[in-house]
């Protein structure tokens, strides 16, 4: 039995599809490497592997069919094409389908792969994680909870019957860590996340420093009774971080598929004021410092920096080729495959779909300190939980967060169990201060943002819960229990 190379599998598959009656065909190949090393509840885990395969999208009767294979033989390629054709036939004609992408005259930004990523090994990642654990546990009042080091590398090639032919190699390297602080009555935890597309973009010392700093900031939290509308300041992590962030709702509302289906309040709002003047929202697919940014998207369209909201005015949406055509617009390079660059799954098994690359909110004209000083009473939040339960169509949310109580322009103390609720489109018009300073995160750049008035509630823990937390603190301090919050 003869096995094809990846490029041979693509070229043979496209020719076989055309001979088999496909009106158009696209072939995609991926050769990815992934290493993930973590320790949680004192249990080490390691995931390593190389994934190789091809997938095809074929057009039959004006609709798309999809299939993939990891076995690169002639027989399997042919059967994969046949499955894709049958898949397209079974769907029936799609009146909105125009074609697969054609080559474009748009220029693509050049990205250079860091060859040093190829030299990283599981031993190196394990050593970094060990260093992190020792540093956190060696800090007075802190205990390591959970962490992971990750490396992903992917070589990909995309061709179609219209002449699109692009290839590239990318990757990412970084880590995550969470720690618990036992200072005060109530134990609390926080986290750090760092990473980038090169070896130089990630230093374990930076992750250690961030994890320790954020956990120490969270030490000795209180609970309080409050129910009123107050100013709320979002730290960058609460706006655009990957651990739960409010403006991910907005990016979802601006995807072409949701716009086309009317499952968003923004379908007919291009050119209208949808946020306060001074608020600009960007998806930057070509930031060379961010994981996941690349020259081309998953359909071969050059990625770009797309200004979605400009000084409060809605300009455009997140578009791939299909929804660009459906809405009478052009793709702006927002097509991705789950797991590209080795993270979050196998890209060969996923069809292209609309997603963001690296979200940005433009800086404002206030300093972070001025925003705090101008807050008579309110909260500054770093993390939000429960956003996945929000109504993404309307933007209505009700979430619980962790942050700090502010009184008379001063940060007083950290508070657990702060709940905020509202409707995001309304909140966008309720922003009254944006900081000049921005923080760089794994998948975004964001300033500090203050909403003038947000429905806020918090409730003190009762005696039973306070007693349980006191016991938990003792057990954690004595290390009788390992990572009790997970």
Whole-Å distance between the termini? Answer: 49 Å
Structural class, from secondary structure content? alpha+beta
- What's the overall average pLDDT, rounded? 93
Radius of gyration: 25 Å
H and E string: HEEEHHEEEHEHHHEEEHEEEHEEEHEEH
Q: What is the molecular shape?
A: globular
**How many structural domains can be distinguished in the coordinates?**
2
Largest sheet at a glance?
6 strands, antiparallel
Strands, total number: 18
Q: How much β-strand is present in the residues?
A: 35-45%
What is the strand arrangement across the widest sheet?
3-2-1-4-5-6
| Range of helix content | 10-25%
Please work out how many helical segments DSSP would assign.
11
Are there runs of 5+ residues with pLDDT below 50, and where?
A: 480-486
Highlighted features:
single chain, about 475 residues, alpha+beta, PmbA/TldD fold, 2 domains, 5-stranded mixed β-barrel, 11 helices, 18 strands, globular, disordered C terminus
Structure description:
The chain is an alpha+beta fold and 486 residues long. The chain folds into 2 domains: 6-211, 2-Layer Sandwich (PmbA/TldD fold); 224-459, no CATH class. 23% of the residues lie in helices and 36% in strands. The protein has helices at 6-19, 74-91, 122-137, 204-217, 236-240, 247-253, 256-261, 321-326, 368-373, 424-428, 463-478; strands at 24-40, 43-59, 64-69, 142-160, 165-181, 188-196, 226-234, 281-284, 305-310, 313-314, 335-336, 353-354, 359-361, 377-385, 396-407, 410-423, 431-441, 444-458. The strands form 3 sheets. The chain has a 6-stranded antiparallel beta sheet. A 5-stranded mixed beta barrel has the order 7-14-15-16-18. Helix 1 packs across helix 2 and helix 3 packs parallel to helix 4 (204-217). The longest helix has 18 residues, at 74-91. Mean pLDDT is 93; it is low at 480-486.
